[in-house]
Specification:
Blueprint (H helix, E strand, L loop, with lengths): L10 E8 L6 E8 L4 H11 L7 E3 L1 E3 L2 E2 L5 E3 L3
Antiparallel strand pairs: 1-2, 3-6, 4-5
Length: 76
Amino acid sequence: MPDIAPYDITMEVGEGFAGEGANAAHINTLLGRRNGPVGTAFATALATPSPGHVPFLAVWAPNVPLQPPTLFVNKA
């Protein structure tokens, strides 16, 4: 496989699980360029929430957004 510079990556997908029962955690991650499919998915998820899911931008502190922009969406 040829070496790929980070800026050449179109999309990377990850998923993780930890814990059990009420203490279980499940995360899905997407990494990609803002002008690619991940940017489109990010904007769509923020603008068109589905019933039972509330997307919001994560912040480090009040009025201090995370960099890179991080979208948090709960699971119903």
